[in-house]
Amino acid sequence: MRRFAFLLLLCGLCAAQSPTPKQPAKAAPVGWKAIHDSALVVDTHADTPQPWLDKNINAADPDSKLMVTIPAAKAGNLGAEFFSIWVDPVKFKGHYPDRTLALIDAVYQQVQRNPKDMMFATSVKDIYAARREHKLASLMGIEGGHSIANDLGLLRDYYRLGVRYMTLTWSNTNDWADSSGDVDDKNIQHHDGLTDFGRDVVREMNRIGMIVDISHTSDRTFYKTLVVARAPVIASHSSSRALTNVPRNMTDDMLRALNRNGGVAMVNFNCGFISNEYAAAEKKLEAEDHSIADLKKKAAEPGSNITEADIQKAEDAFYASIPRPPLSNLIDHIDHMVKIAGIDHVGLGSDFDGVSCTPEGIDSAADLPKITQALHDRGYNAEQIKKILGGNILHVFSEVEKTAAQLQAESPENKDTRHEVKLDAQPKK
């Protein structure tokens, strides 16, 4: 009994001398740089292929003055870029497929010239593979449905070559879809959004796994597209019209509809799309000085030696007199679009190398971390930031791939409609 009492006393003394177990320390908040460095950053729109082709610029050249270069992508932790395949609808009228194929080839050439730093990608799986190898996943999106020359067979050919999204229109209304760029032009034949063939284009894009992009379309085209689409759609480079009232931006109702569709809107960095003040000053300057419009007309003339790069250089000088808006304007658009559409439905569509002005501090892909820092400063957590930086578009891309697999399983046989497609004889007004 005494021995038992002694042991109890000894244990009590040991317990008294033992340190009190500490509560697990709370994890330190993750800094914005760590968030950005660990994110898979995806930008859905850059017009870099045009200068690649027209000026034979190497993506590895740090002195090219392009916004998307290999050094800039590395500095900004850009993991995947959708390079825009844009064909001037006036200059290349009658030759849309030729120019489209030339630009597609320019992307292939860049990947072949820089195999240690770039990887051609056509799927979500490819994007992750490029990430593991520390390479820039290089994807393509056609900007403007006129590139298919009213031929579903050609649409499929572009898909086979690696194109993974297409905007139904550019700033020009085509034969089957209306654009926001000329929606008020009474000299243009409009189609009440989409023709029957336009609906076929959307259906075929869903079937083959090409993402439907509604940037540049008219509001009517947007809503008609959502009625037809079986897969989520994207706006590859559009901002908020509630904050900057220009037709190229999306209304709050459109953002809510995109939420219901499961799609994602990618914020455009163009100064004129994120600042009412800049847009007004830009409009005033264009009304008083027609030099850029005249240059574009000359470029469209047969035998003209004026390139897109020449026009871009002239535009840069032309708009330099207008003060650039602050980065906070861009973040305001992200904030608003997240509030309306939801955190799962917003991303980044810079329009790098396709615009003459971006907000202060955003001069190239190397500056993408500043966006992460700004979002972090506004209270976004790591999970939310990573969704905006790339997670949301990767989810939509995956859903488009799944939908295509389902549709192909439902209808395994596909009749080749090449050269058999007939447009509406009398498009709806």
From TrEMBL:
GO terms for molecular function: metallodipeptidase activity. It comes from the Bacteria. Keywords: Dipeptidase, Hydrolase, Protease. It holds the Pfam family Peptidase_M19. One of its GO terms (biological process) is proteolysis. Coiled coil: none annotated. Its EC number is 3.4.13.19. It is an enzyme of class 3 (hydrolase). Residues 412-429 have a biased composition (Basic and acidic residues). Residues 405-429 are annotated as: Disordered. PANTHER family: DIPEPTIDASE, MICROSOMAL DIPEPTIDASE. This is Membrane dipeptidase.
